Amino acid sequence: MSLKLRTCNTLALNVQAMQTGGAFKVETPLGIFQMLPREIFNIIYPLSNFSVKQLRCISLTSSKFNCEVQRYLLLENAHLKFLAETAACVEGDLADVDPFYLWGMLLKASTIIMNSEKRRSFFTSFFSKNEKITDWPGWGRCFMAFCEKWDFHECEKLMKVILHFTELSQVLSEILPEEVGKYPLMEMEIRQRLRGLFLTHSSTDDERDYGFWISALLRTQKTVKFQGKLFMILFGPIKITETKRAIPSAWSSYNFAALLALLPDMIHIALLKRLSEGRTNEAAYLFHAVKAVLHHWGIHVKTISNIMLKTFQALPPINRRMFFGSLLRAESYQLSGLLLDTPFNAERFHAELSSIRSTSALMTLLAKNV
């Protein structure tokens, strides 16, 4: 039966119902339009004419409208709209509001009645319809908007799904067992995708949230060796020394301390290596750097108490006393340096003082084992 004939039959039945019953009521959010075939409904009520903000409001109106927006988002019309609006962002013609973020909020609103598993599945379907768009930072902003204010556990599940359908999981399983630098182009592609999707978005102001994404990415690898390789791919220096005047960038102590804070088992190795080589002061300052990072992220220093005690007990008695003395001196020098800074930064001084207080129980524990 042709579309025209089906439409005529539907309207004829509605007219007959009105003639026999005196009134025709369809108590649904779509009213009488609910009776129309899908093809006619899309012509009369074209969702593609609405802005993304309007579609988000429509999807929150009722479950019926929500389902209609869901259907629309997986149509070719939605793909073309998404492509056109995000292309302006890629070309640098970014409007006052980021289109990737807006589409992420629309996806969030249109799946609000679904459970977590179905929401992840829907996001996968939407990405597969638009996979030719390779603006990874843009997709990252869309992704962060979609999972905004979610529990970290649910965010990690969504991250694993994204790693799978972007084929990053497969690429990592092939690259990480090889020597670092063997496939430089692939490593740079991994770096760009992972940092774009999870680490370079501007929607997250909380550094603890940023730390979570780094930790979640590293936890996708089962061994410390592969975690270290992945960290190097993500954050390792990429400058090439081409002339005598070029100086390679050294890692900041904060970056290394952040790595140790995310992978506490490596603290034992890092400290013992320095202590065995007589670099006691360096080991003490490294410990204080890790302590400062943990305090800044809102993580209690007691999480590394067992590792520090294990490291301490692995030293001969004289080395324990030397290391403990270096810890106390480093603590004192840091406070003195901040006090004598010009201009004086009261906020940094009190932050350091607060982080030192947080280690008092650990320092007492170490003192008992001197």
Furnish the topology, listing elements before pairings.
Elements: H1 3-21, H2 38-44, H3 52-59, H4 63-73, H5 76-90, H6 99-110, H7 116-129, H8 136-146, H9 152-165, H10 168-175, H11 184-199, H12 207-218, H13 224-235, H14 253-262, H15 265-276, H16 280-297, H17 305-313, H18 317-340, H19 346-358, H20 360-367
Domain FBXO47 ARM repeats region: 165-245, 247-370
InterPro entries: ARM_FBXO47 (IPR056622), FBXO47 (IPR038946)
Protein name: F-box domain-containing protein
What does the model show?
This is F-box domain-containing protein. InterPro entries: ARM_FBXO47, FBXO47. Residues 165-245, 247-370 form the FBXO47 ARM repeats region domain. The chain is mainly alpha-helical and 370 residues long. The chain folds into 3 domains: 1-45, no CATH class; 51-238, no CATH class; 274-370. The protein has helices at residues 3-21, 38-44, 52-59, 63-73, 76-90, 99-110, 116-129, 136-146, 152-165, 168-175, 184-199, 207-218, 224-235, 253-262, 265-276, 280-297, 305-313, 317-340, 346-358, 360-367. The model is unreliable at 17-24 and 240-250 (pLDDT under 50).
Please state the structural category: mainly alpha
- Could you give a short account of the major beta sheet? none
* Percent helix: 55-70%
Unreliably modeled segments:
17-24, 240-250
Order of helices and strands: HHHHHHHHHHHHHHHHHHHH
| Distance N to C terminus | 90 Å
Task: Provide the gyration radius in Å.
Answer: 29 Å
Number of strands: 0
Number of helices: 20
Strand content: under 5%
- Overall geometry comes to elongated
**Total domain units:** 3
Mean pLDDT: 80
Domain FBXO47 ARM repeats region: 165-245, 247-370
InterPro entries: ARM_FBXO47, FBXO47
Organism: Elaeophora elaphi
Protein name: F-box domain-containing protein
